[in-house]
Each structure stands twice: as structure tokens, then as C-alpha cells.
Fold each of these.
Amino acid sequence: MYNRRKFLLSSLAASIGISLPLAGKPIAGSPRIRAGSRPAIISTWNHGLAANAAAWEQLAAGRSVLDAVETGVRVSEADPDVTSVGFGGLPDSSGEVTLDACIMNSAGDAGAVACLKNILHPISVARLVMEETPHVMLVGEGALEFAMRNGFQKANLLTPDARKVWEKWKKTQEAGKPVGSGHDTIGMVALDAGGDLAGACTTSGLSFKLPGRVGDSPIIGAGLYVDNEVGGAAATGVGELVMKTLGSFLVVEMMRTGISPEEACRMALERIAEKIPLKSDMQVGFIAISKAGETAGYGLRKSFEYAVIKEGRNQLLTASALL
Ligand code: SD4
């Protein structure tokens, strides 16, 4: 997957004649991107670089902004090195990989799947729920049956490496005390040249979660929210914190008042910090993009990185931290 990532980045660079930062290397001291421009794509963590590159190629080829976000996050879903998304994702406490995903288009339509097993691209099932059913969310067995009826194939998503990590974790756990950890969900929001927005969010959720646990990522308004008149936002981190405050919706509603994406993300994190007792290892990160193409990311704590591509430049940025 490293090669595919490298290929996507270098082919993008070649097509626009610029050099790109290497995946995984944040740009030290790079200025926050405040100026708005269209098109623009923002996504969470360093695997967002490869996802951005794939999404950008879609826009460059004249595909829709919805195609762009779906294609973008599918890169992370298929990458076994991304241990919190799709194939290679760490399992729940029983050793099962269960996936959560959602998608929104510029018309405000939404689709989601939760606790879906054995499907490589949950984001594409979420899109199908949005486009082909009167519903917003399908879960568990029903979501799997729906996917299979629509031509998706079953796949084993637990890689040997992820199994080893789970086996090690299992040995160290006291019975009955599963703990969640790990947060590298991919959330992406894109704005096309015409000013239309779409977003996608997909994850295997917190590693070693209780079986049946669903996080923020597939919940419209929590893990992702897009309003074509205002902007879009996505979340990563401990989903329970984001769900209790409907974080992405809050970010978009803050932007509706006219404040910048950066201020909006910070205010949503302040809400979490005010309302919820936090443990020292709990992280949440928000990304946001305004209708004008201003972008920002903000973390509860240091270490949150996000990727932005605009004017053909794909950058990994280190977010400011609230605490
Ligand atoms: C969740 N937010 O299931 C997800 C976890 C994650 O980056 O990996 N976030 O709570």
C-alpha cells in the first residue's frame, strides 16, 4: 500500500508539476491555511494525503464531489497499514472487525452503515443506502445482506498483523474490562470548483471495543456533517465524546454564524472539555471546510494531524491543540 500511496502522490505531483511532501512527514511550522480557495479537500491524519490525492484526481477528471470523497476514503479502507479503517483495521474485543461509515452529498442526502462485517468498502455501501433506499442507516446483518444483494463480495478483513495485535491485547486484559484505544478514522470533506460540498467518514472504530459498539463515525452530525450553504466537518478520536456533543453538526452550525472553520472546531472542542470529564488519553480532532474553501483542523490534544489539498498542493498539517 505504501507503493500505491507513493504512486498516487507522485502521479498527482507530476500532473501538476510540483513536488509534494512525503506521507507521514508533517510540514514543520507550516502556516495554517486560512485563505479560501476552490476546489479544496481536507481529511484526517497522514493517510489523508493519499486519500486527498485520489479524491483530487476525481475532481480533475470532472467527476462529482461525491465521487471524489468516496474514492478518496476507499484508499484508506483498502490499505492494510491503516489500522483503524477497513482492511487491516483492529478488531473488537472478540476478534471481529466491524466497520462504521457514512457519506453526505451536496443536496443534504445522507447514508450510513454501522457494525458491518466482511465488506471491504463500507463507504460504498453507505452511498448505496443513501441513493437506493428511503433510509439513512443500515446496521449489522441487515447492512451485510443489503450489501450482498447489491453485488458486494464478502472479504476477510482481519489481517495476520491485526490478529497478532489483538492476540497480544487479549493476553494482557483482565477479564471483563475491555478498553478502547486507537483512533485513525478517515474523515474527508471536499469542495469542488463550483462550490458544492460532500463528505465521507469510515472507520473500524476503537480497537478492542465491546462487540456491537458503534461510534460517532457513521452518525450523521457526529462523525460527519455537510451543509452545502455553509461548509462541512468531520471528527476523529474517541467517538463517545463526539456523539454526546454532536460534534460535526456543532462545527457546521458554528460556521453558519460566520466564524472561521478554525474557531468553529475549537469551540466544538471547548464544548466537549466543558461538558465531559476527560481522561488523559482521550483525543478528539475536528476538520472543517467552509463554503469559501477555508480549511482548518483542531485537536483536543497535541498530535492531531490532517491533510489539505488546494491549488494542487497536498500538505500534512499539525493541528493546534485545545489542551
Ligand atoms: C470511533 N471515532 O469509533 C472513531 C474512532 C476513531 O479516529 O478511530 N477515530 O469512536
Amino acid sequence: MKLLKVFIEHQLMQLNNPFDYLYDSDKPIYKGVRVLVDFHGQKIIGFVSDVIDIDNSNNFPYQIKPILQLIDESPLINEELFELAYWMSKNTISPIISCLNAMLPPSLKPKSNFKNKVMVNYVNVVDHQLKEKYPGLYLIKDFKAIVGQYKYNKYKKDGLIEIVEKEKKADVSELVIKPSDLTLTHQQAEAINLIEKTDKQVILLHGLTGSGKTEVFLRICQKVLLEGKQVLVLVPEISLTTMMVKRFKERFNSIAIYTSALSSQEKYEQYCLVKENKVKIVVGTRSAVFMPFTNLGLIVMDEEHDNSYKQDNTPRYNTKDIAIQRVKYHNCKLLLASATPTLESYARAIKNVYQLVSLTERINKTMPIAHLVDMSKQIRQGDYIISKPLKQAIGQRLANNQQVILLLNRRGYNPIVKCSNCSEVVRCPHCDIALSYHKDENRLVCHVCGYSTLFDISCKKCGSKMWTNYGVGTQRLSEEISKLYPDSKIVRMDTDTTRNKNSHQQILTDFENHKYDIMVGTQMIAKGLDFPNVTLVGIFNADGPLARNDYRSVETTFDLIVQASGRSGRSDKQGEVFIQAYDVNHYGIRLAVKQDYIAFFNNEMSYRHALKYPPYSYLVAICFLSEDESLANENCNNCFDYFDNNESFIVLGPSCLNKLRDQFRYRIVLKATDKEKMIEEVWKWYQSQQYNRNKLNIQIDVDPYILD
Ligand code: ADP
Ligand code: ZN
Ligand code: ZN
């Protein structure tokens, strides 16, 4: 007889307390398997966190129920990942069950319906003589293709072959490394040398866009693979997975890919490849950091500054923190790479907490020539969307058969629709934000919750049906460009055009093969892309993100401009960039135009220092959400009072945020210098909260990335 400690996800569940169940069977059971249990009359899937041998259940002062069913034969989570889940729970102030959930592919998540495995039929040759010719297992169609339908039928009839059913698994070939024929530059060789020699576990590879960072980590990966160890390469977005996978596949034939674009079954198959150690390289986005490696030799985190590395629902982990835990366990290195590292990372690097490795020259030794365009002047001359100099430059590129990238970080046609009669702005009925007009579908769309409605509405306030549309989105920009250059081929890349599974890849490949002259897109085209024929980049509304008014908004504005500029002139042709903005004297814009990261770092750090923002402090945001506004407001006020009495914190707020998805939101932000103590105090507060989870939701965000 065994006593099981079982984590379950339930509204009534007390945070992080496992429940007791009995197990009385000869089948072995392990920590890390799923079980079906009865919880207050409900059948729920739980996760076994401990197995304790006992004599007899009668010794317990309360009655313990047996489990209903054992789901997995072997543990889903190994010791390392179990420890990591505890660590993550503690440090992100989230329930352990949510951490276990985040670590597993959808079909293995504790709360998922343990769906049946997908099975596939194979041909197995039973006849000895024939087996020599056809060893192994074959998919039926493959076998038929080899021997022909007639023989297949005959073999089957004569019992020379049998059909066996096996679980569907992804296929991979043995790893073969194809060495590169590039000669490393002096700086690259030095960088590799330093990365290998340093005894620091975390390395920051800071290099200009186009300075050959990717080549550096391809070489480092190669060495690690030759030692027989596994490599994880993290990229921030799906569009970058395409690029990275392409470059890795040129060198290494056998890799696993793990991104949110995969179906549950595909994720499961890729996961198994790693778990069964059949593949040594994984390229993936955020959640790939939880792959069940057993012999990890390196983690690369490309574009380490990117905010998509931060998970935006519970558990709100930062991928970098998880990666650091993993390299500690595996005693290997974490290589962070970026042209615009977060201030936190760069500060750690110059304080020698991380090893700093710099690439200060582009491979082609030339930076693109950057022009800052003052749009208020352009507007006075009648050019509202595309400035004269940019128009000229586009025309020139088209004449020279070169390609152009245009970045506008707003999808749709117009971001704002106003009543022509009373000026009322059309807002989402569920969120407190303006609806965007999408001309392709003639709909108004909420970019937060996805709500949409046909654009034949009348004004809620005055009943008028006359509307004026304001602002420019990528749809509108594409239209303007095609009017100006009717013979050019234009492709748009944003969330709307990349909903289909392989559309990212398709667009990028087509653009690379010059099926298009101009690519118009949102921030998803700003970084990582390496197209040698692109010699012109235009950035629209470059200072737009400054309006967000959050402590990191200057940093993200700077990053976006520098990254986007870096797409231009990466090969042998001189590149050019036009940066259209209104606030042309802002230091963030000016330094981005000069691509001067170090000056920006010093400048921005002095502001952060003055205001005691990270990296000079740590933040925890606590947000209260409810359909009942007063409930959210009151709870937030109480929370403010609770922490305001504590001398080790500065408490910002409470602030009322936009309503989102019918939820009113109130938030406070805690600021402190001792992170560990802050986490401890917030846990204490959180565990003391008694509230109805159906009516109120409390979201805790440790080290919030965006605070708008
Ligand atoms: P980053 O990752 O820093 O933006 P990449 O690694 O993409 O830079 O390099 C920019 C371009 O230069 C790529 O097309 C790459 O193939 C090429 N490149 C990198 N290293 C070398 C080298 N040593 N010799 C020649 N070309 C190189
Ligand atoms: Zn009106
Ligand atoms: Zn909405």
C-alpha cells in the first residue's frame, strides 16, 4: 500500500498543497506520473509529487480515497524538472500545478484529457529469408512502394509479413555535421575563443546587427555536439524559427523544432524525440526551455532582449531565468545574444557577473546610412504617410532591382474610427480600447480580445452612420505603396497574413527568392531576418512606442529602430535606412539612428537610477481583475494598504487600467531592492488571501516586462 501526494488544479485548491490518495496495486507507480482521482465528487487528473510506502490506511485520522486510475507508466517529469517546477513556483509566485502545466506539451499536461495515443500501422517481415532483405519496420505505403501491390498482397496472404501497430513518432536521421566553408573574421575567432575559455556560466554576446553572431553560435554548437551533448537554441518568435532552422539545417541535418505553431500531436512527437535522446538539437520558442534534456551542453538565447521571452500568463516566468537554472543543473553555458541587450543583461555583463563578448564590426564592414525624417515637416509639405526622401529611395531600389523592407508596428487599415458627427471613437464592447478598421474584411477588430463586427454600425452616442478613419496600419500602407509603385510586387507580413501554419515560412522564402520587391510588416519583420538583397529599410512612426509611457518604453523604442535598421545592407551592397518620427530630438531616437548602444545604455541607466527602476530595483506587479469594478478596486486598495505599511517597499498605484475582456483591472506595483525578501512577503500576503476565484482574479507578475 502506498500513500500518494497529488497536485490537482482546482478552484478550491489551496496553493501548493498536495492532496493525499491511496494506491494499492502491484503495478509500479512513480513520482511524476498522472493519476485520475475523485475530488469532491469530481473526476480530476492530478500529478503525483511523492510516493510513500505505508502499512495500512487505518492509521490515518481521516479517510483517504484510493485513486481511480493510473495514467502513465513512467514519469513525465524527471528529478531536474521537478525541482525546476518548485523553483519556478516559488520565484514567480504561482501554483506549482501551473508550473508543471507550463513545462509539458499539451497532450501530457496534467489537466488535459489524457487523450489516446495516435497509432500507426507498420509492416514487419516475419519470414527469415525475406527479413534479411527487408529489416526493420516499414510504413505500409512505403513497403508497397518497394515491393509493389501484387507482392504485398501475396506476402500477406502467405503470412510472410505481419502488420504491427505502433505509436506515431517523428522520424529523424543520425546527426551529420557539415562544416562551414566560411573563414571566421578575427573578431569572430576571438569571440569563440573567449566564450570557450571563460569560467562564467552566462555569456552575453553583444554584437552589431550583421556582425556574424549567428555564425559564432553555430560554431560553438558544433563543438558541443561533437562532445555528444545536446544543444538548445531559443528564438523569440515563430518567424525567426524559420530563419534559424534554415541556418541550422545547412550545418546539422537532424533537429527538433518546438514552437506554438505545432499541433498537439506534433509537439508531443518532438518532445519524445528529445526525451528519448534521438535528437541533439532543439530550435524553439519560449516553452522549448522545458524540453526534457538529459545531457545538455549549451543553451543559446538569440535576441535575448525580446519581450516574447516573458510568459504573459501564469506562471509568468522569464525564459532567461529558467535557462539559467537549467545550465546550472547541467553545468554548461548559456549564451545570450543581441545587438540591443536588455539593460539588466548589459549591466550584469559590465559588472562581470556575465562574461561580455563583443562584436563591434559588421561582417561587410559597413553600417547602413541612416536618415532621420521629421514627419511634422513632411506633413506641412503634404506627405502624410510616406516622406519624400523615402519615396525617392524606394523608387531607386526598384529601379536597381534591390529589395525593401517597410516596418509599421500596427496591423489593420486604420487604428482609429471616429464618428464624423460627434467624434465618438468606436471601442471594443469588452475592452476599453479603440477598434481597428480592417479593409480586407470590411470589419472592425479588437486587437486584444479578437472581437470583430462588420463595419456597418451606427454611432452609439448620436446614431450617425458617417465615420472618419484615422491613422495608418499595414493594410493601408501596402495599399499606398502599391498606388505609388503599381509595377512592384508587395507582400504584407503581420498577424493577419500569417494565420496559416506555414505562411511565415512561405512569405520569407518567397521574399528571399525575390518573388516580391517590398515587404511591409509589423515588428515580426524587425529582427533576425538576413536577406542580402535588402538595401533599404523604412521605419514608420518610429517614436510611436514612446507614447506607451512605461519605464521600458524608451528601451523598446530604441531596440526596434536598431533591429529594424539592421536588416538593411547586410551583404555587399550599401544599405540605407529612413526613420520617420515626430519627436526627432528624443535621445532614444537620436541614439538609435546612430546605432550607439553604449551611449544609449549610459543615458538610460542614469534615468533608471534616478527613478530607481530596474536594474536598480526589482518590481512585482499585482493586478486585480473582476467583472465587478468595485470588487477589483477595493481589493486593490486593501493590498496597497497592506504593503504600504511595509518599510522595505515603495508601492506605486493603485492605478486603474483599461478594461480587458470584460474585466475591470486595478493594479499596484511594488518596488524593492531585495528581491528574495519581496517574493517572500508577497507569498505571505497571497496565501493569506481568501477570495472567490470565480469573481476575482489576482495576477502576480514578478519582474514585469511591460507595465502599460
Ligand atoms: P548577426 O547574427 O550578428 O546579425 P549573421 O551571423 O546573420 O549576423 O551574419 C550576417 C551575414 O554575414 C550572414 O549572411 C552570414 O552568413 C554572413 N557571415 C557571417 N560570418 C561570416 C564570415 N566569417 N565570412 C563571411 N560571411 C559571414
Ligand atoms: Zn456620433
Ligand atoms: Zn476587445
